[in-house]
Amino acid sequence: MSSSYLPAGMPAPVPSPDGLDVAYWEGTRRGELMVQKCGGCGGWQWGPEWMCHQCNSFDMQWEQVAANGLIYSWERPWHPVHPALKPMGPYTVVLVELPHAGNIRMIGNLPGAADQEVVIGSAVEAVFEAHDDADTPYTLVQWQLAT
Amino acid sequence: MSARTIRGKVAIAGVGESVYYKHGQSPDAEFVLALQAIVRAAEDAGINPQEIDGFASYSNDRSDPSRLAAALGIPDLRFSNMQFGGGGGGVAAAVANGAAAIANGYAECVVVFRALAQGQFRRFGQGAPDPTVSGDAAYMAPYGVMSPSQKYAMRATRFMHDYGVSNDVLRAIAMTSYRHAQANPRAVMNGRPLDAETYDNSRWIVEPVNRLFDCCQENDGAAALILVSAERAKDLKQKPVYLLAAAQGSDHRCGAPVMNATNFPSSSFATVAPRLYETAGVTADDIDVLQSYENFTTGVMMAIVEHGFCAPEECNEFFTEDNLAAPSGRMPLNTSGGNLAECYMHGLGLQLEAVRQLRGQSCNQVEGAKLAMNIAGPMVTPVSSLIMGTEETL
Predict the structure, then answer these.
(1) Which of B300, B265, B299 is nearest to A74 (CA)?
(2) Where in the sequence is the domain holding B313, given as residue range(s)?
């Protein structure tokens, strides 16, 4: 059984039924961070959408990007709002900006001590957290301070 | 002033609410609460509820206008309107939509209402129970980002970092609402004052910005207000309160998934507030009393900044209990106790309070108040805000 930061029983992600973000979730299973890049204007885009917000092209492509970034913001929920979180105690969430991909932002956890200091602007790198035992296996993108 | 504005054309003629309860404590069903609020607003206006011919609400209110009209025996339903999206960000827009219907002759008497019994349905502060999630939620819920408090803390954390804002600002906003609630017999927190020590010792809901007292309540209740034309309002029971301006919307890519709004450390009012002032023909300095929706104290802070009451760098000086308290503070704020301490009536209670201020009927009356601003639920999209005034402001 693979280890995960948050307890078992959390909501499991599944690709959108309309197929919009299948490439992202397949990428995470391979340990690759795939995001959208417009085939028309070359602009980066996140989260996934069918149209480029810059040039309105429908030609959205998927491209692998380096799985690192900077902490843009953070939070530490203490109050459990889901039954699976009740035994957990506080956990840390970061919003990570990817300067090399148009400053798109991604959400993940920053595993570590419950009282760890989080500094906005810190460099982080992705850790792919596999959930192989799920009904539909998936992989979450977590973050750790860059080494 | 251009003819294509709402300014002065529509008045609020009546306000009413149910008894406000903690969630789960209403003896009446949510739909009954809606009817109670509507009937009381009609009584306040001095009209027969069967004269209502339009309904406007927001956040997918469950009390359907056709059922309400059937229950009330309304002979000619002319207008039923729902503001798309944004939850409590839609409350001022709902007033604006109802007013637009009257100004354009679609209806004569519109009730803006919200009925919300969180104890009878899902509480807003709980995560959805679904075992799997897709779309935007797939990028948040598996990481423990599910509730509004968790979704919006990210914005505020970055804002406070960028501008060096102290958490004392948030405490001042919370304590002001509780202070005002002590004079308001309708308030759920009436008789439960909040002191600084209790605030400071309260548990984190989401560190580093949302302690328990920074978060709105979860309640059962309903509220309603009656809109009629300015001409008709003059013949009704109460002193008319006029709609001077309303604006709604949000700025560039505010709804972009996974927290990718362009202007992220924001309450979403950057483009909305300037339009509001332009229509009203007033500035922040002219406003006498301010009702600003508290989902979280952080949202109040950012919304007030984006409406120009202070610069972001001035938050630590502006947001003090002395400045925010009625009757004599620099900008009296949330004078009923608001969503934090009166009732989380999804912001409509704050609209009712603005009307009471301009009539001179508030429990925390600001002497001679002529202009009131209402800011709806911040940080969501779309958001909305409005300005009301007395007859002399027209």
Answers:
(1) B265
(2) 10-121+216-393
**Chain-chain contact of A79 with B157 (C-beta, under 8 angstroms):** no
Q: Complex ipTM, two decimals?
A: 0.98
Tell me which residue range forms the domain holding A50. Answer: 22-145
SS3 assignment, position B117: strand
Residue B170: its pLDDT value, please? 98
What's the gap in Å between the CA of A57 and the closest CA on chain B? 16
SS3 B12: strand
pLDDT tens-place string over residues B231-274: 999 999 999 999 999 999 999 999 999 999 999 999 999 999 99
Distance CA B149, CA B145 (A): 9
Per-residue model confidence as pLDDT tens digits over B31-65: 999 999 999 999 999 999 999 999 999 999 999 99
**How do beta strands B289-292 and B54-58 pair?**
unpaired
Q: Do A108 and B143 touch (CB under 8 A)?
A: yes
Strands B371-375 and B289-292: parallel
Contacts of B302 in chain A (CB under 8 A): none
Tally of domains within chain A: 1
What value does the mean pLDDT of chain B take? 97
In a domain, B128, yes or no: no
Tell me the CATH number at B388.
3.40.47.10
B204 to A82: CB separation less than 8 angstroms, yes or no? no
* 3-state SS class at B205: strand
CB pairs under 8 A between A and B: 139
pLDDT in tens, B71-90: 999 999 999 999 998 899 99
Is B152 labeled as catalytic in the residue annotation? no
Distances (CA, A) of B270 to B244, B259, B394: 20, 17, 26
- Report if residue B300 sits inside a domain: yes
B139 belongs to the catalytic site: no
Tell whether B159 is covered by a domain.
no
